[in-house]
Amino acid sequence: MGARPEYIAAAKSLGKAMAARGIGLVYGGSNVGLMAAIADEVQDELGDVVGIIPKTLVDREVANTSLADLRVVGSMHERKALMAELADGFIALPGGIGTLEEFFETWTWAQLGMHQKPCGLFNAAGYYDSLLTFLDRTVEEKFVREVHRSMVIVESDAGALLDKFAAYEAPNVVKWVNAGSI
Has this prediction a pTM greater than 0.90? Predict the structure, then answer.
């Protein structure tokens, strides 16, 4: 759940806000951490939840067996592919290595034009502040174009984050990189 109570409060507030707006949750199917907290909140508010989990994690007894729609897949790659197919957008709550890896993958896919879905960071208790500073540095150092950096939606309030997701329009970038420049 992380070191601060604000993280679980954020997960619950996002779950409540999603359910209130009729937005379903597609997530990794776990019964631990913030993933479980948001799933439980969406379910408690009678919202739709789809969990997608690889069999290896089911075997380790971390699957959320309370879900009406828990899909067991063969690998992490299958999990991410199915989540990406079913989801209309991607939000990273505070988290660890897996959270960051999945967020950067979906953002990369957006940058490459593989999808037009919003990608956001729920910046509860300023968790992502240092990462955001780093991302700004990637633009300053000309490794990332500003148009692609601006694709990352950041909010610390669940309602504001969902409002920005609802209003999101993917940038129309014909070419994602020009030879020799960014």
Answer: yes
